[in-house]
Amino acid sequence: MVVEVASGDPTAGAIAVRKPALIEAKSMAKILVLVATMTGTAEMIAEDIAAAHCDRHEFAFQALEKATLEQLAGARTALVVSSTYGEGEVPEPTIPFFNLVRESRPDLSGLVYGAVTLGDNVTYPKTFANGGRLWDGLLTERGATRVGDLLVIDASDPADKSELALRWAGNWLRLIEGQRATAREVSQ
Ligand SMILES: Cc1cc2nc3c(=O)[nH]c(=O)nc-3n(C[C@H](O)[C@H](O)[C@H](O)COP(=O)(O)O)c2cc1C
Questions:
Q1: Residue 179: pLDDT band by 50, 70, 90 thresholds?
Q2: Does residue 84 line the site of ligand 1, with CB under 6 A?
Q3: How many domains in the chain?
């Protein structure tokens, strides 16, 4: 199910994917999915992850070139999926938002996130998959906490990319759920 996120919500303007009837309110995470892509592979990977887990969590998609500082600072859990362009840069349309975050220095200490980076190790071995690493470094620099390993996807590798992403996402979401359970215990 796809729904518009209401205004006033940090994910406003993003498109949410969810199955409300199946979501258990307590364990459900609201995940802001931030996508940086040129030809759609990163978006496809993010959609595969959301489709596989939308019965347990709520996913709100946001293209990074249209993201706002308020969305980023207001989110509690995010998944960043970015490809690489130029000479190891983030996709060109997302460079202004990348620079805005770097220059505005928002406090992202309330944000936990997972990150997926895409590249091509045969054609661009020297700058392989640097785009997602740049987002990862920027978020960490601003105080956000990455949960789990960075997932690196190589376009030149014949391995099934969705399969890799789904295996990684299963582990990542278990870590997120564990953190949320611990936070609930502490607050009780
Ligand atoms: C013009 C161009 C430049 C690229 N530069 C890099 C690069 O510097 N490093 C890298 O690892 N991959 C690079 N790539 C490969 C893409 O990141 C890779 O194909 C990725 O899967 C594309 O994802 P997307 O469909 O989400 O944009 C480049 C691709 C193109 C077409």
A1: confident
A2: yes
A3: 1
Which range marks the domain in which residue 77 is found?
2-187
- Cα of 186 vs centre of ligand 1, distance in Å, is 43
Pairing of strands 2-4, 15-17: antiparallel
**The two structure tokens encoding residue 27:** 């364990």
| CB distance 42 to ligand 1 below 6 Å | yes
Contacts of 73 (CB under 8 A, 6+ apart): 10, 106, 107, 108, 110, 111
- Domain CATH for 148: 3.40.50.360
13 alpha carbon – ligand 1 mean position (Å): 27
At residue 185 the predicted structure's pLDDT band, cuts being 50, 70 and 90, is confident
pLDDT tens-digit readout, 128-152: 999 999 999 999 999 999 999 999 9
Give the distance (Å) from ligand 1 centre to CA of residue 162.
17
Q: What's at 154, amino acid-wise?
A: D
**Spatial separation of the C-alpha atoms in residues 76 and 144, rounded to whole Å:** 9
As given in the structure block, the two tokens for residue 25 are: 């309110």
Q: How far is CA 99 from the centre of its chain?
A: 18
Residues 6+ positions from 167 with CB-CB distance below 8 Å: none
Q: Of all helices (H) and strands (E), which one includes residue 35?
A: strand 30-36
Is residue 67's pLDDT more than 60?
yes
